[in-house]
Structure formats: structure tokens, C-alpha cells
Design goal:
Benzoxazolinone_Detox_Enz, M1 Pyruvate Kinase, Domain 3, six-stranded mixed beta sheet, globular, 24% helix, alpha+beta
Length: 213
């Protein structure tokens, strides 16, 4: 579990701050719906988005990344990435978060329910933060993005919190598929648009990406 406060953004012209610098905390930390995008509010108490036009809000309230995917990139690059390095709130273990389906729900302590909404896509801030030559191409090629989640019911998380998948939609539309569609495989977009769980804010963007092709 990782949170952070905005810091100056040195890598993305026109964006003054970034919230990518996340650090592990023990918790417990309150998790609740942050409200609409544009304020910098996110799901975890003590956390904040810096680039308020592109991050935060209900549909990107929480970002999860798998420890197994960190191990993959560590082996690939020779680096030692660990919890929070990619800007995630929840560092998971024992579950393939990229195989999670859009609309899938995870339950946790205190009545917490999270719902998978979409995949993270890489940006110039992420590239600059990681400081790895060719990083965006590498991250895109490996297609291990991790999901964004909305908060359906508030609760709390702490270190070693167990989350349980309590709902898995029938449509096999995964986080990895969403990422691939956004990063160039436009033929996947019509399938994604079949999902009733795609956030309205993402539908227009997906249609725009499809029309570009």
C-alpha cells in the first residue's frame, strides 16, 4: 500500500505537478470515492494526484500493480523496482491483475469493494520518472499495465490486506486487452465497447482511438 503527495513534474511540459512518487505505508488507510476528476482527489486517504487533468477522480480512484510484474521488469532491466515505484497504491501478490476483467469486483476489510475500470497507459512523466532508455516502448511491449479501480463501497486497507474477487463479469474483456487496444490494437476496441462497465469518460476516448485508425 503506497501513497504520495504532489511534487514538481520535471518531465511533462505544461504539467506543474505529479503524484507518481508513492511510498509504502503500514496503514490502515481509509479508502473512499474521491469524486469527479479535476481536483486531484484519489481513493486513498493521504494520497493525491498532481496532474489533475489526467489522473484522479472516481474512475481512477485506486491503481494496483502486481509484485510478480515488478519481478518481470527487474529481470528484464536489471533494476530493483519495488512497491510504489510505478506510482501504484496497491502492490499485489498472488493474482494476475492484468487478467482481471473490466467490471470485476474485489472485496476487502470494512466493507470495501473495488471495481476494475480500465488499464493504466504510460505517459512522459512515467518515462522520466523511471529513467530507463526506451522505457515506454518496453512497458508497452510487455503489456503488464495494472488496473485502475473505482471505489464501490468504502473501507480500508493496510499492509498484507487480503482482497477477494467477489464478481467476475461474463465478458472476457481484460485489463491487458484494454491496454493493447489503447496502445495500437484498435481492432479490439469494438469488443471493449460491449462492456457495460467501461466508464463513460473512457468510452469517448476509445471511440476516438478507433476512429483514428
Amino acid at each position: 500500500m503506497n501513497v504520495g503527495r504532489p511534487r514538481p513534474n520535471l518531465w511533462k511540459p505544461g504539467t506543474e505537478f505529479t503524484g507518481i512518487d508513492k511510498r509504502p505505508v503500514a496503514g490502515p488507510v481509509r479508502v473512499a470515492p474521491p469524486g469527479p476528476k479535476g481536483t486531484g482527489a484519489v481513493g486513498l486517504e493521504g494520497d493525491r494526484a498532481g496532474d489533475v487533468d489526467h489522473h484522479g477522480g472516481d474512475d481512477q480512484a485506486v491503481y494496483a500493480y502486481a509484485g510478480e510484474d515488478y519481478a518481470h521488469f527487474n529481470a528484464l532491466t536489471g533494476r530493483e523496482f519495488g512497491p510504489g515505484a510505478f506510482g501504484e497504491n496497491l502492490t499485489t501478490a498472488g493474482y494476475d491483475v492484468n487478467a482481471a476483467r473490466i467490471g470485476e469486483r474485489w472485496a476487502g476489510p470494512g466493507g470495501l469493494v473495488l471495481q476494475v475500470t480500465c488499464a493504466r497507459t504510460p505517459c512522459g512523466t512515467f518515462r522520466g520518472w523511471i529513467e530507463e532508455r526506451g522505457w515506454l516502448k518496453t512497458f508497452t511491449r510487455e503489456a503488464r499495465p495494472g488496473p485502475y479501480l473505482r471505489v464501490v463501497e468504502p473501507g480500508h486497507v493496510e499492509q498484507d490486506t487480503e482482497l477477494e474477487v467477489v464478481h467476475r463479469p461474463d465478458l472476457d474483456l481484460t485489463v491487458a486487452m484494454y491496454f493493447r487496444a489503447m496502445m495500437g490494437e484498435r481492432d479490439l476496441i469494438p469488443r471493449l465497447l460491449e462492456s457495460p462497465d467501461i466508464p463513460p469518460s473512457e468510452i469517448g476516448y476509445l471511440r476516438g482511438r478507433y476512429d483514428e485508425g
